[in-house]
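Morning F.,

Quick status update on the modeling queue. The single chain you submitted on Monday has been processed. Sequence for confirmation:
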Amino acid sequence: MKRLAKWRLISLFAILALVLSGCGKPYLSTLQPAGDVAEMQFGLMKLSTYIMIGVIIVVTVIFLLVLVKFRRKDENMIPKQVEGNHRLEIIWTVIPILLLLILAVPTVATTFNLANVSPMDKKNADGKHNVLVVNVRANLYWWEFEYPDLGIVTSQELVVPTNQKVYFNLKSSDVKHSFWIPAVGGKLDVNPENVNKFWLEFDNKKADEAGNLFYGKCAELCGESHALMDFKVKAIDKDKFQTWVRAMQNVKKPQEATTASAQEGQQIFSKSCIGCHAVTPTNSTPIAARIAPNMTNFGERSRVAGILPHTKESIKNWIKNPEKYKPGNKMAGKYPTMSDAQLNALADYLMSLKVQK
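Structure tokens below.
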């Protein structure tokens, strides 16, 4: 009875795991592709799955056929021996080779297609790329996104146009990370010693279905807050993307606070935070000086620190104790203790940082 109960429990967990495996949001699931790269990768997954299922079915049918047809009826009967049968040997040698070719050819072709970043090498007369290029820099535990040809730097929230290839340069400031947007593709190592390159394309229709927001993650164990090293991707149509670019480029100096509380917060920010955090999107600042996330459009983002709800309360909680939410982050202990009134003013100022009113 105990053994029966154990198997019932195992069966229950197996069914539950199967049910949960079907759960997923359109901005999170690799099984709901939202771009060309994800579609190609999903197609290879389906192809390999179909081949495996086909092999299992054929082997099972042969096994059952042999089990029934050749079961022992007479102890003195010896079944017909097929050892050395050239036809059978050719068949069970050729079939696996054909299956491997069916899987290998599209896999190799797709790999070379995804690795083709040659358009990044072409530049116009102004020395700028003919395609949209984003330099991704991974840090413990946040992400920076630089648009070198547009003169824009932002953090924690990547903004991209839909229905257009976006090319990425991946580099780490510290340890090895991995850049991954599950619903769109990617998952490429971000190393401190070399630059990796690849491209993605975001489908406009799928982006609309996902609310124009996808989730990105670090997929390489990088430290104690690895699981919390998230970023968001805002995928918008080309016209809205150009509007966003112009709005960011128009920010030439720190935005002025408009309310008394936000003005007080700006003063606090200028004394305690400006040494690490920039509030202008220019990429003229040397990389070595960009030691914390850029805050230019902080008020328009969807999360605080990449993981908390985008509210004033979350901002205050984060500033009070960032170690509580992301252990091992580099912000802890680098600013003076603040009163509730100061925290409230600083949160008001940060929430007012918007480039698109």
